[in-house]
Predict the 3D structure of the following.
Amino acid sequence: MSEIEVAQISCGSEYTGIQGEIESAAERVGAKIIFPDIDLEEVESAEAKFGLKVTSPDLKLMLARAISVVEGHTTADAVFIGTCFRCAEGALVRNEIRRYIHEKSGLPVISYSYTERTTADTLLTRMEALTTIAKRRSLLARETQTGLTAGIDSGSTTTKAVVMENNRILGFGWVGSTDVLKSAEEAYSIALEESGVERDAVQALGVTGYGRFLLGKPFNADLVQEEITVNSKGAVYLADRQKGAATVIDIGGMDNKAISVHDGIPGIFTMGGICAGASGRFLEMTAKRLGVDITELGKLALAGDASNISMNSYCIVFGIQSLVNSLSKGARHEDVAAAACYSVAEQVFEQQLQEIEVREPVIMVGGTALIEGLPHAMHELLQAEVIVPPHAQLIGAVGSALLSSGFIEK
Amino acid sequence: MANIFIYPSNSLILYDLVERFGHKPLAVMQEIRKKVTTAGIDSPPLNITPEDPKIGLKYAAVEVPAGVRGRMSLLDPLLEGAEAAILVEDAPIGFGCMGCQRTSELVGFLIRAKQVPILELDYPTSDDAAKDFVYRISEFLKGLKGTEEAKNE
């Protein structure tokens, strides 16, 4: 298979000292970074052509390179857009270029804002998704699960496994993640037992999630795939929205994904993994403080009113402090639960959904989607149709089982 | 001979003019050359490593983008060594640029705050203005005392 060429359109990566990390991440997924070749005249005319005035010359260069990609002077399979974290002008240019390339070229595109601490590992999942979308469109076009297949999703908080046969879930396992291999084995064994299927009878197996690389060999996986493409497929499959536009939101234990999809294939996506206050962990801590099981938090939130609680911070520590202060003033538990859900939804809305095109329906997946207050808060914020598909927590495992059925027919 | 900081700091024209009048231009190319010829570091393309933006913390706090701080780490020896400066405003990209406007603003402030002799010029847009541009630079450079001369006084 020929190497995937990823056009890099960026400002500051060489001065930040992380250009090597970007190239290393690309190399690890069989891709090569290329830079659109531009002459000085094109840089000088880029602002007028693009319609955006900027002061930094490297941002003008970014505009010129974006135009080169869209006009076909540069041939690329995918595009990586990057600017420095905390650069306001860079963020504006990054967003507009991302939108421009997505709309005008249809190429898969990711954008990222880096610091000197950005590593190849941080970029790997994003780069893997980008190359998968570019080179494995036929695999991602699969809409039905055939044969007897299984999927394992090794997540940061929980590990999920599912066994499927001819478009039907036979059984699943869902356990807390401790040791990556042991947790996967446990979840898979439960899924097999519930399905009444012998391990040897499974025709193909796919693995995804953080632990995917570790699981690949011991489980003899046919598909080892990052969670952005897998979850997109799983989400539209379970929500029965395989055709047309949709937005997939997965609020996980360690990071969140927001993916704009078309016909089940990701177009633009973001992956946030910095702030715990916008993660499932914050809701777990809230449930603990309220003395309820996490499975009860959502219903409690639906009976509450978030506006009754003053939340001054998105930080997991200060956020919990705000909730505790409210409780000490006699706030209702229902209102506190609603405020926690609203806070998480609001952070995802403010920090991630601005980076993608939100198109209805919004499909919320992952274990947190089952906390009813969270999709409700997201609906309130977006004023859009929010779907929580059945088995929303199994999205990665189902996506893996669905995609791996493509390997049976080989 | 004096050490002359030039801005844009990669301007070949300014570099050449400073050299012609017997002074030492301080340009970013010299610092990049040191980086790329240092054995044992492999951080393409400029051999700036993630450690360099931390050196830039000398000039800008951590909330300033890493790309600005990385550039400042390159410019640090030039700012430190400057005994005079020639700054050209509104120059086209072909004349020279550091790529980042925020870095340009910070560098302009820092060199002015250093209170060394400074010649500030607008980029010329006509033949007459170009002649005047070169004339003013030559007069500025001729009037500067070198490090040794200043020491001997």
The radius of gyration of chain B is 16 Å.
